[in-house]
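Let us work through a complete example step by step.
Step 1: write down the sequence.
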Amino acid sequence: MSHPEPGVELLERALAYTRVALRHVHPAHLHRATPCAGWDLDHLLDHLHDALEAFTEGAHGTIAVTRRARALEVRVAALQGVAAELLGAWSAPGTPSLVVVGGLPLPTGLVSRVAAVEVATHGWDIAQTTGRATPLPPALARALLPVAETLVGPNDRGDRFAAALRPRPGADPGERLLAFLGRAPGHRPQPCRTRPG
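Step 2: predict the structure and record it as tokens.
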């Protein structure tokens, strides 16, 4: 029996964390500000739904880089379903070795790791917004930090990613990952990554 690609294992752990955060979303939370500047939870949920669908496409070899309109009523139940579909697609036999993203072929392992960073980070955003403030699991954050460091270069800061923050001395792996992505518990909202298009 073959073992899943390591990026898929990371994605599974990121999805498990985020699905717990989604269970605590209530209608009263939808218009709360998130750690992402200018985004309320309603906007963040739509963005996450769009990202999950895009990464599901990636399991079949291509990710379109166009933004889809998202109906306002698409919410938590749909996100839970798309999360399950995403993991199933990446775990299925015959996943391609390359994923074409906007015409650029990328290794499947890299794309699944990027998906894990996106899912876990926005899961943390959701947890913060709903008042749960559940920390990222240290082992997951430790594995995701080098992916984030590869993914986010100096030219990506600003509109796509917030400026990195300095983690406090003795910060755990989750705090270090979040600081690199411009997030900290209780810190003012920062720009969040958006899909191009």
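Step 3: interpret the result. Residues 69-73 have pLDDT under 50 and may be disordered.
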